[in-house]
Amino acid sequence: MASSSADPLADLQSRLQSLELSKAHADAGAVLNKERAEILLSLRKVMAAMKAEAAKGGGASSKELEELREENRELKKVNAKQQYRIEHLVSNLREQIEGKQ
Length: 101
Prior knowledge:
Layout: H1 8-55, H2 62-100
């Protein structure tokens, strides 16, 4: 077992550091694998829940959709009224400003 290094002690220290470093990487790899496994399990649970919801006809029912559409129509009416009022107020404000100048 001939060493390419002239100093056998330095060679041994280098090998020891290399082994310690590889051990640290192995430990980190084990931690990462554990985390990946946990994430995979949680994703599987989410997928199962989504599939169960889809099987039950998940999402909004037609009644809920109709209620939402009606609410949307009402909100559009309110928004249009508010927009008209804002335009009216801005117009009057401009007239007031121009009248004072």
